[in-house]
Amino acid sequence: MDLAFSSTIDLAAAIAARKISAVEALDAHLTQIDRHSEAVNAVVNLDREGARERAKQADAVQARGDALGPLHGVPFTLKDMHQTADMKTTVGFAPFADYVAKADSPVVARLKAAGGILIGKTNVATMLGDWQSDNPLFGRTSNPWNRSRTSGGSSGGAAAAVATGMTPFDVGTDMQDSIRLPSAFCGVYGLKPTEHRVSLAGAFPDPNGAARSVRLMSCLGPLARSVEDLALIYKIIAGPDGADTDLAPVPVEAMPRLDLKTLRIAVAPSFPGFPVAGKIAAAVESLAKRLQSAGVIVEEANLPEIDLHDDLEQGGDLIGMMLEAAQPEPPEQPKPITNWFEALARRDRSILAWDRFFETCDALLCPVAMTTAFAHCEPGTPIEVDGKEQSYWMLPAYGAVFNYSGHPALSLPCGQDRDGLPIGLQLVGKRWSESRLLGIAKAIEALTGGFKRPPGY
Q1: What is the reported pTM?
Q2: Number of neighbouring beta carbons within 10 Å of residue 180
Q3: Which of 71, 131, 134, 347 could bond to 140 as cystine, CB 3.0-4.6 Å?
């Protein structure tokens, strides 16, 4: 059993069956971190001794015959933005360099209650504000497939750690493609749930107990090397928690087993006016043909009659308003409250348009991003796509559309481009249908090739 690259489910089963110990599982991942940290720089806050003590305790609990949780003894990492009582939470920002929260966030508490052993935090963009993971505290995370390329952001450390066997899973945040883009760049799976499905309480350092301003578009979700692992972690962290009052009391269902012949999937190799590399568009079309051959009803997507570019702009405005509200000092000329309600009304129209779109199909297959992993660069530098420079700010466009609409979406690996870099494709579903969306992804997993280990790991 290759412990460093075993799935979360297989590790938990092996520990439960006493084929391996929690300490052995931890040591395998610590060895992988030690071996590759200098090159990749994915895990930045490592609680080696604390994790070892918790692994020993997990083994002692099992030896007594006590009940085991679904993650009993399984090591894991978390994106460096979750508040944790026993570990620093910095978001790569100097003022938070030594910040330790008084309590675990609800998501962290649920993972620990399920038996998981937190071993460290993974690198991020400063204040989660870019699509590369680089900050003044910990430096830059590189892509394990090509270290001259970015791992993506802001969950780039999480994606790189999962891809290299440093952790079986992580939990990131996604406000503008920040789970799906790095997952695609590093060749792993990443899920952005429906908005208000997973608690945002404690999802950012808050030493002063300020009012939570980020209440829309941002979502927490898992990154892993298989669809089944995504489904397991999602089921553990989703649902009302007594802290985030925005969470919907919608049942969190188990991932269904679906027959491909019962599915109808809409396909969009690109969106109007959105750039995309030819190899990515071709990967969408190629998978669509394989799906059709397997019995799926495949149809060209008749996208909603909305201005997607305007959606991106409106989404950016909403983010700006939320961030403005979070500032300790109010702006000299604050926006009137009517702007907020007008922005919400505009957003409602797009949400409903996408809701109508998904009345006629089970899922939408489309790109995650306009390119595969690009070379490290200064934020804002134009990105070359098939020999033509494109705006840096269009990097997350395909994913950010569904942050704006709130629909669940996941990134799944689907081969490599001519440079040997992973291609990730996006699967989007109805709101509140994460479990079914995961079931669709599982049904087509064999047709995509699934996760591939980066060379040298």
Answers
A1: 0.98
A2: 36
A3: 134
